[in-house]
Amino acid sequence: MNALVRRLAAAAVALTLFGLIASDLWIGGFRAWWDQHSLTASIVSSLLVLALTGLIVDDVVARRQRRQRAVSVAVQGLIVFGQARRACGAILRSDLDDARPSAVEELRSLAGMLLTASPSLFDDPEAHRFLEQVERSSVSMFRAARASSESVLNANDRERLKAEMAQLKVTVQPLLMRIPLQDRALLEGPSED
User: Fold this and answer.
1) Is 27 helix (H, G, I), strand (E, B) or coil?
2) pTM of the entire structure?
3) Residue 86 and residue 69: Cα distance in Å, rounded?
4) Is the distance from CB of 128 to CB of 172 less than 8 angstroms?
């Protein structure tokens, strides 16, 4: 259930419950009606308390699950970032004849990682921004790889790739902050810059 909908439903149930309590305390006719219909009053109040409790517990559990998944999502994002760096580095080195097959393989690996990691990155807002940037960057990398297979990569394409990687590095930073410092270098791998 969407967090906003869950919170709005909890607020509506709580306001209804408080409204019934206030009406029972201050409105004599209201109190008399509920006194005459005690079974109905008992059922309504029990259902409202149950609904409020259920919504609060649901929100607490959802928040705990998001917190537990945050590091896992960050690790997947960091692994994808490392592969994107390797692919970009391979493309930038593709002027060498022996590096062209490497660039193609790195791009294939990046595409496979994106397909695998996308479902878990999609639900987290920071990871979703990162995923969108990786997708934009990978399109630029595929274009540059195609251009470099036909001729030498020109300066504009090189600068565009470097700018895309700089932007990608900015969008991965919120995910990096979730991972303990000693584990980042291990997961990220050596720099391809």
Assistant:
1) coil
2) 0.66
3) 26
4) no
